[in-house]
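Researcher: I'm preparing a figure for a lab meeting and need a structural model of a single chain. I don't have an experimental structure, so a prediction will have to do for now. The sequence is pasted below. Please return the structure as tokens so I can convert it later.
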Amino acid sequence: MFPTWLQAGLWGLASGSALVIGAGVGYFLNIPQRLIAAIMAFGSGVLISALSFDLMDEAYKSGGFLSTSIGFIGGALIYTIANIIVSSKGAKHRKRSGDQQKSESDTEGSGTAIAIGALLDGIPESIVIGVSMIEGGAVSMVAVIAIFLSNVPEGLSSSAGMRKAGRSAQYVFLLWASIALISGIAAVCGYVLFDGFSKEVVAATTAVAAGAILSMLSDTMIPEAFEKAHNYAGLITVIGFLCAFILTKIS
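Model: Understood. Here is the structure written out token by token.
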């Protein structure tokens, strides 16, 4: 049996690997944008459900309203500020599958900004995996599956847009492979750094991640889903939400 910190890292790496899978599909296959948008809508619903019934509910049970509320708003605020910074450097449309993404010739340094933005989007999710293992040493499978299912469309849509912006396959796959590896490291940090802290601190940390994830969904995934699949985006999002909700009840 692997030590708990290593298990956390492996689960983080496993969920992050979905980004590479999605990138492969998005970069090498000519997927219709409407289908990509539908997949993004499904992934958004999955994450909204997971952060509602798994992350926020657990945070409230452990730390109460105050810790959860402070963490939730704090996570959203931190993500929003960081997102504004990287967006101003050329990463505003990093998850768009169309021709919205900036190439390096359009905006110098946009490649680095996109990489930082992708890292910004993935770290909160991975930390949650590690934090979920603090009590009892067992990972939250709902969180892992939800993150995996949402990472596939994230990698798919973003990589399709990167290809249209002239990014090389080497750049795309090095980026997502690096993010997958960092996801594993972030999960380890989530477990190691917060193990031993009070329930209130752990609850606030979980809520911080939930706030950051919801802000990320609103800023990056949902706009892509709505633009191309707006007639059906709501329905598909609801289906994704329901799937994750069922998962929380049978797990």
